[in-house]
Amino acid sequence: MRDLPSQPAAPCLYTAVVATGDSTSVCIIGSGAAGGVLAWALARAGVDVVVLERGKPAKRDETAEDELLQVIRRSHQPPVERDGTVVVEPTARAEGEPTRVGQAYYLLGGGTILYAAASWRLRPDDLRKRSRYGTVPGSELVDWPLTYQDLEPWYTMAEKEIGVSGKSGADPTEPPRSFDHLMAPLDEDPFSARLAAAARKMGLRPFPIPTAISSRNDAYLGTNQCQYCGWCSGYTCLFYAKNSVDITVIPKALKTGRARVLTDSYATRIETDPRGRASAVIYRETATGAEKRLAVGAVCLAAGGVQSPRLLLMSASKQFPDGLANRSGLVGRYLMFHIEGRRTAVFDQAFDFVLTKKVGVHDWYFPAKTDAWINHCSIQSGSRRGPLRFALSREGWGEDYEAALARDFPRTQQLQAMVEDLPQLANRIELDSGRKDPEGYPLPRITHRYHEMDRLALVHSQERMGALLQAAGGKLVDTAEAHTNITGAYTYHLMGTCRMGTDPKDSVVDRDCRFHDVPNLFVADSSFFPTSGGLNPTLTIQANAFRVADYIVKHRKELGG
Predict the structure, then answer these.
(1) What is the pLDDT at residue 287?
(2) Residue 452 φ then ψ, to 5°
(3) Verdict on whether the full-model pTM lies above 0.85
(4) Is 308 a member of any domain?
(5) Helix-helix angle 33-44:538-554, to 10 degrees
(6) Domain housing 114
(7) pLDDT tens across 313-326, in order?
(8) Integer Rg of the chain from CA
(9) Residue 161 domain-assigned?
């Protein structure tokens, strides 16, 4: 094993305490990509903040690079009975059969602890789907009430405060930056070099993927230089090189003295006063079962695309009989995933085990005018299975099986396609009246079906990935079939369930992510996305969280904080 570099002081471990709160505080529900940024941005501006986090701080084992330990380390992922029910087409799966959907991680820092750290800016046309493509039968396309220019300064701030490695201008679809805060890109590994060379021979323009992984030691961020161990996607970073919010921004928020973080704190209801304003958050201490009430001046939802609408629906009252802030009936509607396609090939040489996303190809990001779909799509390398998961995915046993694993694992590589999921009103989150979590609260019920364009875009992206792998000398070992149903293996980045817009009749929050129906209630996670784009959403979530925090600071008097 490599020697560990000197690491920054680990963030302190937080323990839930009895909290009465006060009417000047902002309660943030969730401590992931959005919640961590909100806490830092508000606290440094002098706003008192209380963060409720359902999980615990992540544990990082600094003694071994062992996949079994890494898998055990993921035990904070909730079991399937906490994740809800997927209803899919009856021909593909029995209706109502439970399955894991996307990622739900209950821990301080949320998904930023375990993500592959791809950190993209959306393209201007990602925010103007209706203007670019017009109407599409079966999909409710809209433009965002924001432009790329509105978000650009906040992207710049997020790249500075979170830390992103990459190469400005290398991506042919990349929008302009007002300032380049990017660290140098991560080192190119042998497979990435081979893939990039093959892509260039095909007339494509490969580039290093921007990632929130440090290519240098950075005292301000609190992170160390990447050691290229391979344990990135789906795992905690042993070296404090992945720029998760529990390392980069939450410690700085705490140092201001304005922020408190209560872990093991499961928000179950938001109360309103007679004026219809959020007045308190009810939460349960998961370690003790005790129920607590936190008085608030404002509330920011940052619990994710499923749990944020679920909390709103659980907060139904006489004022809001269909769920808090749900007079439009759209809370939980327009659920979007990113539809992930994969192609796998075996090569004639072994490559080092590298999970980190390294090479992107965006020459096909925008569909051609002759294409029968309008989905945007990013093709990316990386996120290969570890040796244990690779072994479990193969059939056989005995000496021949062992020899095949030893031969094939180092030579097997994978490409991924991140395909845009078009928004549909029928795709939604609801409360499941027949199923409850272990604490007795109704589980979310998830209904989702693909649009036909989703399938077409997926098939063609898989064909293109296959051609690229073959051009690099690989032998394809899978088939390019579009999945016909939603499963945990192919759903990522839950978005859209509190749609942003200007009209309260057809959206849930306004352009500042403030709920139309409740003036001191905000959402900053990916729920607000009107369309999903074809890129990992984390940097957009973080940029927008800085923007929302700025709005709260400027309007804190009228919000009551």
Answers:
(1) 86
(2) -60, -35
(3) yes
(4) yes
(5) 30
(6) 26-559
(7) 999 999 999 999 99
(8) 23
(9) yes
Question: How many Å apart are CA 532 and CA 438, to the nearest integer?
Answer: 32
Outline where DSSP puts E strands in 53-203.
Answer: 85-87
Q: How many domains is the chain built from?
A: 1
Kindly state whether residue 11 falls inside one of the protein's structural domains: no
Q: Does residue 520 form part of some domain?
A: yes
59: which 2 tokens?
């544990």
Question: What 3-state DSSP class applies to 13?
Answer: coil
Is pLDDT above 60 for 473?
yes
21 phi and psi angles, rounded to 5 deg:
70, -175
Say if residues 301 and 523 touch (Cβ distance below 8 Å): yes
Residue 437 contacts residue 431 (beta carbons within 8 Å):
no
**Residue 426: HSE in the Cβ half-sphere, 13 Å Cα cutoff:** 10
> Which secondary-structure segment (H or E) carries 247?
helix 245-248
Residue 351: CATH number of its domain: 3.50.50.60
Paired tokens of 315: 């907060």
Q: Cβ distance 246 to 113 under 8 Å?
A: yes
DSSP state string for 248-273: HTHHHHHHTTSEEEE-SEEEEEEEE-
Mean pLDDT of 300-310: 95
Beta pairing partners, 113: none
Secondary structure (3-state) at 293:
strand
Q: What is the DSSP letter of 485?
A: S
User: Is residue 307 classed exposed, middle or buried when 0-12, 13-18 and 19+ CB atoms within 10 A define those classes?
Assistant: buried
Task: Retrieve residue 506's tokens.
Answer: 């057809």
CA distance 110 to 442: 22
CA distances from 334 to 139, 194, 329, 449, 525 (A): 9, 40, 11, 11, 15
Side chain identity, residue 108:
L
**Residue 354: what pLDDT?**
76
